[in-house]
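User: Here's a structure from my thesis project, written as structure tokens. My advisor, Dr. K., wants to see whether a designed sequence matches the one we expressed. Can you design one independently, without my sequence as a hint?
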């Protein structure tokens, strides 16, 4: 629902509220079923010097041999334990994501071709997808000690929720998020052979990590902050974002246009790069000195990007014409990065990594033409 109120002839107040459902994700169910036809064996390093080259300490078993050696079929010290990368959640965590969205703002026409606007926007996400790619553990084949709030070591097979299995990662729909943003804009429509517009957003994005699962049940007691239950600034949180673009009809058949984009550093989920909690995963937050890597504490470098376009019109016969186009992307060849090395134990921690997204490419030039008739 929404409302708009004309305060004066050139000023309008507006607002709205919505309740939106997200997609029903069924691909993780497909992944779960696919594990009925494969055996993804997980082997713990037993300390042998040749473990990396000879993990089975003998011939690699075939599919049929591996199935026969599973702990569920042939219990014993030499049995194999399969693992799963993505499992559909049990009913208690298989929610449909939804969000509350609200905004309130004002728009003012300054003159016939110029307007400014400002809006406060809020998005409250609920039952969002949590699991793959996030720092806290999502291996639900663990159990937790209520006295300490810490998981029993994954290497202690007797303490696993399912002793016949290895690491089993499950995605649950139990995360919540809150976005707050001040969105402003300036628009100058085409007149006197030029037009321009600009936007600026000041925003904050927060989210939470649910408490971990002990088997198929969520723990009901406090755990250390690196294991779950935290609420704070989220990955992709970006404080400032500004975009300006314009078009100028120079004359003599030339048109010049361009775009400038600025984004302050995005927030990323850094980690220590080890498994000191022995959760079965290698991106834990606990450091050897007992301190914990702050959640989503790494902020990348700002992004600056200028794109420019020069167009020359060549009139032909009648209404036909030919346009020659020169486009330059990232005109000043600013070094923009979208990914970083985020494990503190890695000597390259904090350094940018290769990103194939076109938004982070170095300067590029493109030639083209367009015919109209």
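Assistant: Designed independently from the structure alone:
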């Amino acid at each position: 629902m929404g409302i708009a109120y004309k305060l004066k002839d050139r000023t309008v107040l507006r607002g709205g509220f919505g309740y939106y459902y997200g997609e029903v994700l069924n691909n993780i169910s497909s992944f779960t079923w696919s594990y009925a036809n494969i055996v993804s064996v997980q082997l713990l390093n037993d300390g042998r010097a040749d473990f990396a080259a000879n993990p089975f300490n003998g011939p690699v078993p075939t599919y049929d041999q591996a199935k026969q050696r599973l702990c569920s079929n042939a219990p014993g010290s030499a049995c194999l334990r399969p693992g799963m990368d993505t499992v559909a959640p049990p009913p208690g965590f298989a929610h449909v994501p939804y969000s509350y969205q609200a905004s309130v703002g004002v728009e003012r026409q300054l003159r016939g071709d110029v307007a400014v606007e400002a809006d406060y926007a809020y998005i409250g996400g609920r039952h969002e997808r949590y699991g793959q790619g996030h720092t806290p553990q999502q291996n639900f084949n663990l159990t937790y000690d209520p006295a300490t709030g810490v998981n029993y070591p994954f290497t202690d097979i007797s303490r696993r929720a399912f002793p016949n299995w290895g690491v089993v990662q499950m995605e649950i729909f139990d995360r919540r998020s809150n976005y707050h943003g001040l969105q402003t804009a300036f628009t100058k429509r085409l007149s006197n052979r030029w037009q321009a517009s600009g936007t600026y957003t000041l925003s904050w994005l927060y989210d939470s990590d649910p408490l971990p699962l002990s088997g198929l049940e969520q723990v009901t007691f406090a755990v250390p902050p690196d294991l779950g239950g935290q609420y704070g600034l989220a990955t992709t949180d970006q404080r400032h974002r500004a975009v300006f673009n314009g078009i100028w009809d120079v004359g003599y058949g030339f048109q010049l246009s361009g775009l400038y984009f600025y984004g302050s550093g995005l927030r990323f989920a850094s980690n220590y790069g080890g498994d000191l909690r022995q959760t079965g995963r290698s991106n834990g937050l606990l450091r050897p000195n007992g301190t914990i890597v702050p959640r989503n504490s790494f902020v990348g470098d700002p992004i600056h990007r200028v794109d420019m376009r020069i167009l020359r019109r060549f009139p032909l016969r009648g209404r036909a014409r030919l346009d020659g186009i020169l486009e330059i992307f990232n005109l000043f060849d600013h070094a923009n990065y979208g990914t970083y090395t985020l494990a503190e134990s890695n000597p390259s921690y904090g350094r940018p990594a290769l990103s194939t997204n076109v938004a982070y490419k170095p300067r590029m030039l493109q030639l083209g033409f367009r015919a109209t008739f």
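When you compare it with your expressed construct, this may help: The first helix runs from residue 27 to 34.
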